[in-house]
Amino acid sequence: MSVDVDKSAQPPADAPPPxxxxxxxxxxxxxxxxxxxxxxxxxxxxLVRAFASGNVNWDAIPQYLFNTDILKGxxxxxxxxxxxxxxxxxxxxxxxxxxxxxxxxxxxxxxxYVWFFRGTPVYVQLFLWFNLGLVFQxxxxxxxYKDEWSDFMTPFLxxxxxxxxxxxxxxAEICRAGLNAVDEGQTEAAHALGMSHGKTLxxxxxxxxxxxxxxxxxxxxxNMLKTSSLVIAVQYYDLxxxxxxxxxxxxxxxxxxxxxxxxxxxxxxxxxxxxxYLERYYARGSSRQLPLTPLQRAKARLAGGFNRSAGGAG
Amino acid sequence: xxSKIVTSETAxxxxxxxxxxxxxxxxxxxxxxLKGIDLEVAPKEVFCLIGPSGSGKxxxxxxxxxxxxxxxxxxxxxxELVGYREHNGKLYELRDREVAARRRDIGMVFQRFxxxxxxxxxxxxxxxxxxxxxxSKAAARERATKLLDRVGLADKAGNYPSQLSGGQQQRVAIxxxxxxxxxxxxxxxxxxxxxxxxxxxxxxxxxxxxxxxMTMIVVTHEMGFAREVGDSLVFMDDGVVVESGHPREVxxxxxxxxxxxxxxxxx
Lengths: 314, 267
Description:
By secondary structure, chain A is mostly helical.
């Protein structure tokens, strides 16, 4: 440590004041914001009043929230969502790899698949699965299984195939984008180290592609949860079907629709929270410091309250 | 930085040249990049490749570990053809797995580092020994730690690449290549993407490696390094070898007009 004698000997009067006075100015008044806020609040109040005074039996909603039929419908909705997504993700990965294959047959089959399943409404696809019995009267896998198509194709299987195979087309595009997003230098570096194609894909490329794949896949799960309400077309007993049945039987039709909406909202909220943590996991290494989770932030704030000098946690 | 990494057996087993190129040609579509390269790299030699950008020096380097496929000529590493097997006078293309097996013995360091961003420094180094050689995690970690110490980054083992400077990333990349105990190291402009004050650390590691007897092929613009450490130097331009010889001779007394005009711009 050395001190420059000349500088320290300078008279302090020459130096600028260490803290210049902060600027004092009259801020701009945003009258428009106040007006807009008042108008929006007024409209909201009107809406709430309309619903509250309307012919809706609000008490029925908490009363039927945990109704066994409703819960069964909810369970089926979650089940079909999860299983369809599994089919979608696995199918999507296979299709994405097929699309990138050097074999022209596999890549064009994958292209055709995506073209067909993305180009037709999923509602129509569900009906097609349901009515495929007109084409195939029997299902006959010679030595193992033989049955009438209508017995084999249960509402559950119709819903599963309809939603899952449709989802695979969308997942294929998401996976392809993710794989393409990984820098080619990563593959080269792995190859240069003597890693095989498969190992390079599994250990180096896919984990990095996940950062691009996970966020849109989370959206797809939430979308799937809602789209699954279309399985009413194939007589599958999902949440919406249950709500409608209960509503019809008990004379609370609108109330049960609102109740279904409440359950859908709860489920999508839980899924969004899960997605946040999943994205955070796959972001490791890509940003210098991971943002704190809400829980960690709350803890840090609590610790800061007791001991102000402590820095942020983590 | 005293411990030796290079053992005597890493100097090659064939007894012949480490790398031998005979009339090597390479085209990308209609662009003819390499137009007949002939050269030999001896074991334990530090072989420098210089030349203007687009002269084909990086392409040639990438051909050596089969990241690019040559179109004509013969290219062999330690007596074995790159990418092919010769049997009864016929060439057979190697399968992916066989190509990967040959690459294990050839380390490569890239201009853009290409560290795996989702792994820490020590995990980057451990990855290939575990996945390719089937080494145990403990053994791989032990050697990775030694290598990190050797490149002067023992305290950065748990850092992700994004938390390291360019020079530190490149040193981790060198350690990652060394973890496979290669008999040949390829350097593709290893300091070109670095801030000037970080170049020295990387060059120091490379000098150490050269002193230990590693066979190295270095594509570089660092004429000082070539003069000080290099055993041979080749000047390439427009896909051909224009001039070759000892670095001090070629750099100090260039014979060809193209070499002279290139050196007058970079020296």
